[in-house]
Amino acid sequence: MNAIKVGLIGLGTVGAGTFHVLQRNQAEIRGRAGRGIEIAMVAARNPERAKAFQAIVGDGVPCVGDPQQLVANPDIDIVVELIGGIEPARSLVLQAIANGKHVVTANKALLALHGTEIFEAAREKGVVVAFEAAVAGGIPIIKALREGLTANRIEWIAGIINGTTNFILSEMRGKGLDFATVLKEAQRLGYAESDPTFDIEGVDAAHKLTLMSAIAFGVPVQFDKAHVEGISSLQATDIKYAEQLGYRIKLLGITRRRPGGIELRVHPTLIPSSRLIANVEGAMNAVVVQADAVGTTLYYGKGAGAEPTASAVVADLVDVTRLATADPDHRVPHLAFQPDAISDTPILPMAEVHTAFYLRLVVADQPGVLSRITTILAEHDISIDAVLQRESAEGERQTDLIILTHDTVEGRMNEALAKMQGLPTVLAPIVRIRKEELA
Amino acid sequence: MNAIKVGLIGLGTVGAGTFHVLQRNQAEIRGRAGRGIEIAMVAARNPERAKAFQAIVGDGVPCVGDPQQLVANPDIDIVVELIGGIEPARSLVLQAIANGKHVVTANKALLALHGTEIFEAAREKGVVVAFEAAVAGGIPIIKALREGLTANRIEWIAGIINGTTNFILSEMRGKGLDFATVLKEAQRLGYAESDPTFDIEGVDAAHKLTLMSAIAFGVPVQFDKAHVEGISSLQATDIKYAEQLGYRIKLLGITRRRPGGIELRVHPTLIPSSRLIANVEGAMNAVVVQADAVGTTLYYGKGAGAEPTASAVVADLVDVTRLATADPDHRVPHLAFQPDAISDTPILPMAEVHTAFYLRLVVADQPGVLSRITTILAEHDISIDAVLQRESAEGERQTDLIILTHDTVEGRMNEALAKMQGLPTVLAPIVRIRKEELA
């Protein structure tokens, strides 16, 4: 059988990685797919990259500057979009679909924001849009959720799905350094971009979480409803106190089914140190899935980088090569559920989210302070799990009071926090970090 | 579209679990599969189970005593074999295939021993034999290896793939108890069978490893070539010393590609305590896969039990429902590689396997003992990584000498061990446990 013909848009890190993996492992890949997978055309904006690429592959594979030429090429069966960002990626993907081509993409931002439009267009044309590489790099988590766990009612997903922030948090904990210092180190080592906003503010994690949530619960992608909170204001002090209490702080993406709707949130989270996911260090990713039949499963690996991401892109190419011959109604649905089974379950506002909390209050070191604070919590029906008070030094007038609460509703906690913050004995803004047992 | 019709052979733990999961989650499953999955007939040897089942489902689903009747039923599209063991399972599966039915099975022993015959029969009839439930229960590891990592040249797999032994080892370490005591506790709690041989001697793990090895490396299933060693002779003392040196002992199934062939072995193994897999406790399973593009990935979850195993059985049912409409040449191949891409790379004999070693020698506490032992190791070109000597008590004439070696070839270690054992100052049989860094 003839090789399937692939057009590759983008020769950056992942584009080059995809090319190399396909070349290096072509015998293994053909042995699995039953058909060769051949890059038939490449589009790269950067003329130097294009030239370097052409020097490697010779004239056999045309490399064009204009990606329009690639998506219009009638010889191409599958378009691989690896340029990232919204435009021109969105237009190129939609044109490829309109031209009847399957699409493989690693573009989480595009799908989290415009997935509904793109999947609908693909359905109408009977083509596949595959996106394993968009979430957690080389970990086959989309496949696990969409195909491996089809028997289950999924209850929640919690993931370390951004390597940059996990690297920073690991270094802050391991070396006791503050955020700004570690960020600079991460930038020097290439773990963080020169403009790190998307990573450190949780946006990248929220894009990925939005996709997992849609697949897990059979709802449309709704990035605009996600709560997004990063790690830039996290203090080394709280990492240390959390550790004393038996917890680690991780930036988690959490999505959970509740009676009234779905929670969809990215924020720093205390998790018990004994959990496997609490021990995921450095730039690694891991996703925990809780489901009714299988119980807890965890998936771990590299969430970024040229070849780990290429691993997912190529796995999608093999899948699409197989699916191309299947009856479209029996392919794996883009969002795991058939279009007529997608539900309109709402995404819950943060005020209705259930979590436990870690609170750090800088308080006057005088009698009655703890009692006033615990009274406020009791009035809001928030029960206390543990209290830790720093031993104040001789002559010191203030101290740190750490409180771990049991699960409560966030809106109620916000009210209690406002009251506590108003106490004259509370001397600084209260630090509040959500806490999950993940059990 | 009409529901696909399933015949279920076996109403034991997994059979009942499969029935319950299909019932409870039928809306979700249909939403994903695009088609209902309906149990149309059940076969159960045990008349009481059959009666209890009939009482639940009423007369709508016939329950027969003779499974032949089920595999011969022309209305059945997929036969689910959940009776385990070799016969009559083998004959029933082959008959189902001969009758043009797809098969889903959790039977690792059957496939590890007779997989070649069964997959060949399935290929000839153009049907699928799916077996996600045969390895690591609900963890979708077969899917990850066969479909998620298709881009990769897989280098090695190391897995905790038997929950009974991992429970026993966790308890031995956690409570400092010996093997026999913990085995009794495990039997009382239902984690170990009354005849626990298959689990504790590593046979069950070797069945599963054989399947993963075939899929990873594109070779036939060859259970007869596997090295199988269990945990029944493991001593609490060695778990303790390993811990002092920064290691945990796990029963691992390891398969690794080497220049001259493939290693295929199950044995107790020291692994660094900092590895994620070293922290997998209790009856949980985990599999680490090392592959060239993606790097290290890990998959964790429940490896046994009614619903975790049913989760995998039902995922296979959904897959088969989809694949049923695909061109047979483009389905996922049973052993990941197309039949013409299966290689005859040999399985290496244990004498040619590379590992590091933990040695515990009971030696006379006198000068020159360590020197004689290290000389023997040096003569065999085995280099030492660490030495730990127990402080001997006042007046005690003997002590424990623990040696960790670097990687060597097992045959060479066997020769060195024979020489060491012959020394008059070595007072007891030397304990030897293999050690892997898994990095």
Automatic annotation (TrEMBL), chains A, B:
Enzyme Commission (EC) number: 1.1.1.3
CDD domains cross-referenced by the UniProt entry: ACT_HSDH-Hom
Gene3D superfamilies noted in UniProt: 3.30.70.260, Dihydrodipicolinate Reductase, domain 2, NAD(P)-binding Rossmann-like Domain
Pathway annotation: Amino-acid biosynthesis; L-methionine biosynthesis via de novo pathway; L-homoserine from L-aspartate: step 3/3; Amino-acid biosynthesis; L-threonine biosynthesis; L-threonine from L-aspartate: step 3/5
Classification via Pfam families: ACT (PF01842), Homoserine_dh (PF00742), NAD_binding_3 (PF03447)
Keyword annotations of the record: Amino-acid biosynthesis, Methionine biosynthesis, NADP, Oxidoreductase, Threonine biosynthesis
Source organism, top-level taxon: Bacteria
Top-tier EC class: oxidoreductase
PROSITE patterns in alphabetical order: ACT, HOMOSER_DHGENASE
SUPFAM superfamilies: ACT-like, Glyceraldehyde-3-phosphate dehydrogenase-like, C-terminal domain, NAD(P)-binding Rossmann-fold domains
Residues of the ACT domain: 358-434
Homology family: Belongs to the homoserine dehydrogenase family.
NCBIfam families assigned: PRK06349.1
Protein's name according to its UniProt entry: Homoserine dehydrogenase
Protein's organism: Pelomonas caseinilytica
Biological classification of the source: Bacteria, Pseudomonadati, Pseudomonadota, Betaproteobacteria, Burkholderiales
